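Re-run requested by the PI after the first attempt was lost when the workstation crashed. Everything re-entered from the original request form. Ligand of interest: zinc ion.
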Amino acid sequence: MAKKEIVKKAVVKENTGEFETESLEPENKVVTKPMVKVKPKPILQPKPVVKVQPQKVVIKPMVKVKPRPVVQPKPVVKVQPQKVVIKPMVKVKPRPVVQPEPVVEVQPQKVVEKVQPKPVAQTGGIVDKDKLRREKAKELKRKEDLKLFASEAITIKRELDGLSKLPSINIPIIRAVDFLIKHAFFTRASDIHFEPFEKYVNIRLRVDGVLHDSFKFPKESQSGLITRIKVLAGMRTDEHRAAQDGRFRVEVARPVDRDFDIRVSVVPTYYGEKAVLRLLAEQAEIESLDDLAFTVENRAKLNRALAKPYGMILATGPTGSGKTTTLYTSLKAISSREVSIITIEDPIEYSIEGVDQIQVNNQTNLTFANGLRSILRQDPDAIMVGEIRDQETASIAVNAALTGHKMFSTLHTNDAATTLPRLLDMKVEPFLIASTINIAIGQRLLRMICLNCRVKRRLTDLEFQGLKEAVPITILKQHREFYKGQGCKSCNRSGYKSRVGIYEILEIDDDIREAIIRRADAGELKKIAIKKGMRTMMEDAFQKALDGVTTIEEVLKMTYED
Ligand SMILES: [Zn+2]
């Protein structure tokens, strides 16, 4: 229905395998196919089997969002012990809730390794030799892919270093942009910033939530870089004074074998246009709720809420706290042939199989509120509204939850308890809040310690003081030993790699309900919830620091928030 896409495509195929010695590949072949309607995979992509040319990136510009129904990430990538290296991720990084291993000092990334189906045949005791052979071949291919990855990542970085030092007139713009995107992908960056300054263009990458200076390109290459980005994203190249938004799709061939969307924003600044590219590429990372770092209790609360036939599940936290991931993963968990799930989002971060996703479009007046109204006429079982930020949306959402729908949404509040009074502020009646909300999830993302260079360290007195207010002193006193990453090659010397979710889940029970109805404030609601066993985000974070998943510095960051 509202999923009308106009997609303009200029397809650029580029073989990027030529480095140093072998430069066998044809330079950027540009194929331009104008087409009106969306077509998921227009590009025939013969798998590059040859090793020399590992990475083929196909970039397709598109103007409007294109929810793609079925791209399932290849499991191959997932099983790799080193998988963290290869996948950029904006958000949460799985780590089993209960830390499986006692922390050993330099422990090569074992923990991430997923259980792999044993290649043992069990057909009535007869060993299936073919199957074994196939498994063996697969395993070999995986190893090869890994090697390919590592060398590819290094080559791209080297190539970019070289490119950025060329005299500006010689910089191959198309290659530079494509390599930057790939480099971002390999370093697991979520965003690429092209920032114009007086004398150069600064390229920064956001990795695990933190920006890093990456390259400086000569000032003269600025307009070329920005124009290239605009072309990819289907923006007007002759417009320099207005802000523009766009989007395009990138396909990465073997060994990655996946594609993802890049959302682009260009704004005029004093020294020219600044572009930010956001890589929407996290779906492969989060497969199921098991990949989110919920405690057993929190997982049980979430399961109970998901099992209820109607009511609201709210996720809350600042921007970039992983709310969407939590909700997407929950939707995936309840998705089946028997239920209809519809979402309205801004933006659609990635497509979920079996879910109808609608993009908010203010130009056509397809707002959260209007979209939600239309969705309700589509006979859905479950609905997700990207965000409840106004009274109108709040009221429709609550009514939808009341009339037999599972409702998922996010709110912009600091913690779980504040969600409830926030809805009161939006003029939702207390009894409606009390009777429709199942759980409110408060969350944050903290950086995870790189497992490759993790070492023990003791808590300093200063840190002890800082934690005193957030963590009960009796608990704090028992623990002095924590962990940190020393910094190594695999984490770009940062000591961190990937991120982990920190959660608190407030379950609405009779006591909370009663408190909501008498309009209790967030502080009181939180107290009640804690008494009933809610583990706060701070406690969750502290535990994860004790377990060596994150650092005390990351935990302390949370205490500065309020
Ligand atoms: Zn490291």
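Saved to the shared folder this time. The two ends are 43 Å apart (CA to CA).
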